[in-house]
Amino acid sequence: AKADPVKAKQIVETVCAACHGTDGNSVAAANPTLAGQNSHYLYTQLKAFKAGVRKDPTMLGMASMLSEDDMRNVAAYYSEQKPKDREASDKTQMPLGAKIYRVGNAGTQVPACMSCHGPAGKGLPDQYPRLGSQHAGYIVKQLNDFKAGANRKNSPMQDIANRMSDAEMKAVAEYISGL
Ligand code: HEM
Ligand code: HEM
Q1: What is the number of the ligand closest to the CA of 12?
Q2: How distant is the alpha carbon of residue 76 from its chain centre?
Q3: Is there a cis peptide before residue 156, judged by omega within 30 degrees of 0?
């Protein structure tokens, strides 16, 4: 099916904007910024919520209302919005955050996040989600969800999160939010 930006905008304005913003830049840290996120990734997450594979009660309800075409449409719409630059709020976390993101931790075999999510945090279309400009609070929750394997299962993120300490998660999340 061809993308339908008019239909997408209608769904976004009436349903999603309350939490993710009309332009995909959310305000509350619990609600991820969707602006500029890879379209394929957004679509696969909506599918996962709807199937109950990625567990979130709110998003289960939202995704359940969307048809296959709706999911592709809103994914395309949000991917075309511009993410707002954000500044890391806790600068003391930068040295450790940058180290994890760019080099990893050889001692515990945490790989450099950059190797998949890219040096500027843009990800890779069809393969890896964008992380740059994301809320640090949301990133920390996702890493903990991967680690617990309850709400969200995914290889390689589950294995990576398993090897990370709370301090490393917090630091890398702050670093990522400023990318
Ligand atoms: C997560 C899309 C409506 C709250 C997500 C994600 C997508 C998405 C794609 C995953 C993002 C990622 O993995 O980076 C949408 C669409 C909506 C919608 C297309 C409208 C049809 C809402 C509404 C709320 C909400 C109305 C609040 C009441 C959340 C929260 C998460 C989330 C809290 C994070 C869940 C978690 O911690 O894993 N949404 N959303 N969304 N959304 Fe929505
Ligand atoms: C997803 C962080 C390393 C592959 C994610 C997400 C976060 C994250 C927060 C969820 C994004 C969202 O919900 O919007 C990190 C950090 C890393 C790291 C902090 C370094 C410590 C890697 C590496 C790879 C990778 C090295 C590739 C080998 C992926 C994939 C997803 C993902 C495929 C999508 C998962 C899905 O479809 O549910 N990562 N990542 N990540 N990451 Fe990473």
Answers
A1: 1
A2: 15
A3: yes
Cα 14 to Cα 2, 27, 102, 175: the distances in Å are: 22, 17, 39, 33
Test site for ligand 2: of 113, 122, 124, most ligand atoms within 8 A of the Cβ: 113
Residue 168 has pLDDT above 90, yes or no: yes
Report, as an integer, the average pLDDT of 134-151. 96
Ramachandran sector of residue 2 (left: φ over 0; alpha: ψ -120 to 50; beta: rest): beta
Q: How far apart are CA 79 and CA 38, in angstroms?
A: 6
Domains of the chain: 5-79 (1.10.760.10), 91-177 (1.10.760.10)
